[in-house]
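Hi Q.,

Before the meeting this afternoon, I wanted you to have the arginine prediction in hand. No need to reply - just skim if you have a minute. The sequence and ligand are here:
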Amino acid sequence: MCGDTNLSGHMTDQPRDPATEVHRVASPDSTRVASYLAGRDEVSRVLLLYSGGLDTSVMLKWIQDEYDAEVVALTVNLGQPGEDYDVVKDKALRLGALDCHVVDAREEFAREYVLPAIKANADYGDGYPLFTALGRPLIAKLAVEYARKSGCDTIAHGCTGKGNDQVRIEGTVATLAPELKVIAPVRSWAMGRDEEIAYARKHGIPVKGGTEAAPYSIDDNLWGRSSEGKWIEDLAHAPDDDVFQLVTRPEEAPDRAEVVTVEFEQGVPVALNGERLGLVELIERTAELGMRHGVGIVDHIEDRIVGLKVRDIYEVPAAAILLKAHKELERLTGTIHQNQFKPRLDQQWAYLVYAGLWWEPLREDIEAYVEHVNRRVTGSIGIKLFKGSARVVTRESPNAVYDAQLATFAESGGLFSQQASPGFIEIWSLQSRMAQRIRGEV
Ligand code: ARG
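Predicted structure with the ligand bound:
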């Protein structure tokens, strides 16, 4: 009747002209599929998540050339074994980084990310203890922190467009730092491995190891290690031995079993074989025991968030032992109803984390329940390690909902009267009996 409302809320009498309307919303950035992605002219100083590997080394140079931008590198130590951070830093600086920050985030990773996972018995898809999925939100949070500190406008990472990690990192940046932009060169630069190596050669970027065959794609931290690529993509191909870089092959593990006792206080693992240890060290020592005995090899088919079904080879020696011990102790201290209910929340927690939604409030809501249950998860669990298996053999807890006197076959009396059982059975089976009768089946 009287025109439409423009953006500032005023009524106008001008009829809307579709041509100018379209023109008004279209901008040079309109082909960008997400608002947090950086346009070419928005990039002047980039915080690059740098591992020292081929992709991120090529990227360090490529960003400087392609965007005419400065690069600050950030390398995060989450306990990946055998990394020499001086070498990584030196390489970044030689490739022209303004600076290379190396952050030891092992403590924070263990306390704030791995520990909640232990309390939630975190496992995605029956076998993946989420080590990468737990690490990414922390890495991205640190990227935001260091980008702000170093005056960067953009964060760059080396994830491909087919994986979960891009979701975890970019989801974190977009959530925590709406003012920062993201670039993901591997997603767009259309260089294959050979081109990357050629680029590296041309620009004097050292390439580690042989260049003939693509290596496994590895990601690791103190909670585990994954391998992807090569024959792993052939589902009918049983694992080649060379993929196992942490865990001893069970065939070669010692002939003598070893029992490890893990002690928990309120769901937190605090001691190993009676020795109190900080969480990082406890995880590392548990991993060593598992590795020696061939424990924690997982050959996993996985449904990624982006829809792909893939295969991963995981080596998770610490998680295989600590999750098993925690789960056992929790079951011992919980009632039948708690024990039936919590796995549903645990599964939802694991899914959120896997799916890159670490900052989703539901995660903390679930953790409130998980924490409450874990107040009683105190005691110790003995696990026997032998040629690839980890089996619970002993349990002890002041909070066990267990009474040996009641559980034994022989005795009657106290809180349990065997004479009362038939009355219970009659009432317990009432609805089933009625239903069968109504169906005419009895
Ligand atoms: N499939 C696992 C996950 O999505 C491991 C991914 C490892 N990441 C990597 N960039 N290699 O969490």
